[in-house]
Amino acid sequence: MNVNDSLRMGESLARVGYRPTTSAEDADLIILNTCAIREKAEDKMLSALGRYRAVKLRRGALLGVGGCVAQQEKAKLLARVPYLDFVFGPDAIARLPDILRRVEMDRARVVETAWLESEEYVFPRADPNSSAGKVSEFVTAMKGCDNVCSFCVVPHTRGREVSRAFPDILQEVAGLVEVGVREVTLIGQNVNSYRGGVSFAELLLRVAQVPGVVRVRFTTSHPHDLSEELVEAFRIEPRIAPHFHLPVQSGSEAVLKRMRRDYTIEMYLSKLAALRAARPGIAITTDIIVGFPGETEEDFRATLDLTRAVRFENQFSFCFSPRPRTVAGLKEAEWGEVPHGVKVERLERLQQLQRRITEETLAAEVRKRIEVLVEGPSRSNPLRRFGRTPENRSVNFEGDAPAGSRVLVQVTGSSPSSLAGLQADVVDLPPIPPISIAA
Length: 439
Ligand code: SF4
Description:
Blueprint: H1 2-14, E1 29-34, H2 39-59, E2 62-67, H3 68-73, H4 75-80, E3 86-88, H5 96-105, E4 110-112, H6 128-131, E5 136-140, E6 142-143, H7 154-158, E7 162-163, H8 166-178, E8 183-187, H9 200-208, E9 215-219, H10 228-236, E10 243-245, H11 253-259, H12 265-278, E11 283-290, H13 297-310, E12 314-319, H14 327-335, H15 340-363, E13 369-377, E14 385-388, E15 394-398, E16 406-414, E17 418-427
Parallel strand pairs: 1-2, 2-3, 3-4, 5-8, 8-9, 10-11, 11-12, 15-17
Antiparallel strand pairs: 6-7, 13-14, 13-16, 14-15, 16-17
The chain binds iron/sulfur cluster.
Iron/sulfur cluster (SF4) binds next to helix 7.
């Protein structure tokens, strides 16, 4: 979400004449786009601001903070960081040029964190001029979240759910395809609860059928919004990429209840089984919080068991950190704070297990011929090419296929996080035939 927001900020600044620098040392404007999901991200923001203070003093650079910490702290952040020029929330991205004008012309310190009503809100859209040359692009489908997970600060920083009208999304996708984008990732805090005139499943099917779209992805989802219709969309539309990021958060029923996650492990597993039946080989990734208040060793072992049973392709796992104004933050002492050392030790055990599973999953691809959508030169070795499989696995390979083409790659090796291979003789696989959407 934040990567997308940063891209949109860059585009809106480009329209008023700003250009990116390669180093913060040369910048006239520095914006930190922040995340409030964990305490560590906030700490990092403060230390980065300390570093950029020197640039401000030396060349008068303007310094701003955007994103969820800005939304959470509002004017308090200006009081805490006296050299900060402006603070703006996620809803104010489109107004960034206006904020800068006020800072520069009026010499004001600006706080712009009002939430907009759904009818006033303008969804940031990718600028086709900036997207030219990209193979993959984000498209915003909705924002905000109506859930009440007890650990999560997002409903406080991003507000209630607002879905974008589907014709607007389709129009944006068509514009991106025209400049060469082949893969679209629909994003939203709780994207599969989308209600913008069609169901989320239908939105995916319609986006997949925009001529020129090769793959559609989406992130991120709540298990209770994984509908049968969505499973069916995976079964019938091959352009919906076989990768589902489905945060489970814990393998323990008791912990899930305190998290207010609104599903049981049995429900979660039965949804995964339906997905796997609809699309064999689909990659499942997840998010897990370790050391949630009251988590016992037995609860934690249930998370390890779940990880072994599902064999997630990968997972983003973190130690619990209490967030302001959340139920879990307020009740941490009552439910039982897990000591920091225990959290860290559990996280290491979980990540070690996941590393092994990821490594085994990737190693099982060696000697196969796989489809890769080429993104460009490999970052580690520019003489090689880089691309991703439909399951979102990274592949570095020897070949000469241009960005945007779909190639077959013979996998010759694997590392803990990627595959290596040789481009096979087929370049630009034939287009996937259209399917018909039931009325
Ligand atoms: S569904 Fe996701 S974004 Fe919404 S409250 Fe729960 S964790 Fe936060």
